[in-house]
């Protein structure tokens, strides 16, 4: 990363923020049981505070889910500024080969690029990412064949399919995949390394999801927008586009009107959400957040495993917003020391009960054959040692292992299956950090943190003589958070 791309660090007080208030925010997060994985607070372009809850860390990319949408919007902004396309362009004009046979629905013919940007394409029901990922065919054709219900532009209906179509349009208009198009225009200038972007079977980047970035990359993106498209003295994206994209373009409140206390009902721009207190944000499922606060010249970047983003935003408004003064504050070495100590000790390690049990020697190395089950699990095996346990699971996909530490995280790679618990995601390989503890003499509990995702699985193993009951659950998911128990017997 080029030296000019380094974000500078300062103390909170130098940037007009009370360290004690940042500490209070972190304590409130933990007290309310809100699972954050990474946190960065920037003000005036400098980092005031940053921390990661082990086993998560600053160098790990983390799935963004729908926060990816704001990057797709940015690509559209570049394409518009280069006269590659217009917000008034007809959507079906880009894909005549995919238009349904017969007379064209007038509502479909009226759909424009701007309607995709503002989530007002005209559908009553959305197409979400989990549905797309189960679709093997032509996603563009799938979208265009969806029945239209409303005049485009008239109603806000959140729709990941609309963002996918924006990605397809950028690819049609520029001749480049979305990621390739953004590399020299956004990612490289900002010093952001992107390994890839999930794509559809046709090779079009998903657009509405599929990016994984570090917490600092989110902070850079937010700072780029705070600076109205300028970076390192260069105007990369027109300031007029930034203003338009982050302004309220359409209402997204309930039928009863806007809820003044809900950040989800403050209006929607071009794939950006309006928030309270004059702020706006890019966000994604399960606690991925890039919050831009222009009035305070501040940016907050968060990765997490959350089911309630509003709870975190509420704490931001309660603790961090009032802590931001108009100028530097007097030094507060005691509070700064306490804050640094807190930031350096953040950890998700669950409470440790017992490090060993006599049962371990009785079950170690013994394979348990599992009764027929919905997950296709065939057998499991535990290999206990002085420094932990290697857990092996065999299913319809093959054999998968996870190594668990004792009182600490053991990091490594795994192919462990988990689609049903992980929002329909099942990559061929995953980074995992795992730890195990004996809750009692007969109950071994494993915690698996898939550190490039929001997902943390808890696996409870109850041993009864030669039998086993295994229960697996997850911290967050769009569907059920628990799988049916597995029942096994020693072979």
* Radius of gyration, in angstroms, nearest whole number: 24 Å
Instruction: Note the overall shape.
Output: globular
Largest beta-sheet characterization: 9 strands, mixed, barrel
CATH architecture of the largest domain: 3-Layer(aba) Sandwich
DSSP strand tally: 20
Structural class: alpha+beta
State the low-pLDDT regions, or none. none
Strand order of the largest sheet: 11-12-13-14-16-17-18-19-20
Number of domains: 2
CATH top-level class of the largest domain: Alpha Beta
- The N- and C-terminal alpha carbons lie at a distance of 54 Å
Instruction: Estimate percent helicity.
Output: 25-40%
CATH superfamily of the largest domain: DD-peptidase/beta-lactamase superfamily
Beta fraction: 15-25%
List keywords for this structure.
491 residues, alpha+beta, Beta-lactamase, Lipocalin, nine-stranded mixed beta barrel, 26% helix, Diverse_Enzym_Activities, Class C beta-lactamase-related serine hydrolase
What's the topology here?
Layout: H1 19-31, E1 36-43, E2 46-52, E3 62-63, H2 68-81, H3 91-94, H4 106-109, H5 113-117, H6 129-133, H7 139-144, H8 160-174, H9 178-190, E4 212-213, H10 215-226, E5 230-231, E6 234-235, H11 239-246, E7 273-274, E8 280-284, E9 288-293, E10 298-304, H12 309-320, H13 333-344, H14 358-363, E11 367-370, E12 377-385, E13 388-395, E14 398-406, E15 410-414, E16 430-440, E17 443-449, E18 456-464, E19 467-474, E20 486-490
Parallel strand pairs: 14-16
Antiparallel strand pairs: 1-2, 1-10, 3-4, 5-6, 7-8, 8-9, 9-10, 11-12, 11-20, 12-13, 13-14, 15-16, 16-17, 17-18, 18-19, 19-20
Helix pairs in contact: 1-12, 1-13, 2-8, 2-9
């Amino acid at each position: 990363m080029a030296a000019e791309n380094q974000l500078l660090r300062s103390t909170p007080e130098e940037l007009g923020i009370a360290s004690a208030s940042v500490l209070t925010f972190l304590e409130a997060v933990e007290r309310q049981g809100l699972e954050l994985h990474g946190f960065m607070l920037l003000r005036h372009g400098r980092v005031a505070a940053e921390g990661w809850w082990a086993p998560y860390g600053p160098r790990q990319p983390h799935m963004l889910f729908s926060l990816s949408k704001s990057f797709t919007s940015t690509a559209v902004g570049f394409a518009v500024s280069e006269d590659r396309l217009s917000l008034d362009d007809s959507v079906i004009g880009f894909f005549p080969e995919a238009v349904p046979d017969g007379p064209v629905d007038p509502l479909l013919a009226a759909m424009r690029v701007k309607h995709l940007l503002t989530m007002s394409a005209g559908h009553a029901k959305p197409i979400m990412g989990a549905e797309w990922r189960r679709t093997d065919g032509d996603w563009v054709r799938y979208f265009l064949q969806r029945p239209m219900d409303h005049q485009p532009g008239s109603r806000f209906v959140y729709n990941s399919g609309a963002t996918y179509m924006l990605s397809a349009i950028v690819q049609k208009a520029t001749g480049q995949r979305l990621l390739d198009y953004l590399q020299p225009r956004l990612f490289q200038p900002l010093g952001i390394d992107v390994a890839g972007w999930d794509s559809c079977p046709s090779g079009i980047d998903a657009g509405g999801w599929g990016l994984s970035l570090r917490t600092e990359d989110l902070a850079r993106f937010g700072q780029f927008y705070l600076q109205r498209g300028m970076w390192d003295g260069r105007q990369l994206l027109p300031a007029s586009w930034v203003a338009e994209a982050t302004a309220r373009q359409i209402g997204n409140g309930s039928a009863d009107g806007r809820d003044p206390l809900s950040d989800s009902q403050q209006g929607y721009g071009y794939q950006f959400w309006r928030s309270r207190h004059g702020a706006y944000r890019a966000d994604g499922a399960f606690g991925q957040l890039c919050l831009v606060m222009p009035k305070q010249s501040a940016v907050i970047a968060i990765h997490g495993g959350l089911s309630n983003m509003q709870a975190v935003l509420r704490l931001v408004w309660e603790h961090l917003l009032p802590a931001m003064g108009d100028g530097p504050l007097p030094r507060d070495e005691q509070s700064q020391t306490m804050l640094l100590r807190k930031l350096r000790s953040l950890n998700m390690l669950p409470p440790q009960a017992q490090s060993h049990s006599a049962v371990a020697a009785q079950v170690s190395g013994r394979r348990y054959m599992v009764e027929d089950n919905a997950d296709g699990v065939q057998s499991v095996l535990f290999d206990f040692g002085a420094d932990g346990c290697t857990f092996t699971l065999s299913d319809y996909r093959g054999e998968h292992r996870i190594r668990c530490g004792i009182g600490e995280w053991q990091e490594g790679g795994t192919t462990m299956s988990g689609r049903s618990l992980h929002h329909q995601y099942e990559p061929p390989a995953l980074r995992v950090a795992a730890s195990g503890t004996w809750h009692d003499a007969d109950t071994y509990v494993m915690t698996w943190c898939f550190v490039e995702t929001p997902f943390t699985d808890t696996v409870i193993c109850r041993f009864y003589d030669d039998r086993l009951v295994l229960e697996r659950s997850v911290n967050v998911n769009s569907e059920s958070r628990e799988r049916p128990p597995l029942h096994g017997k020693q072979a």
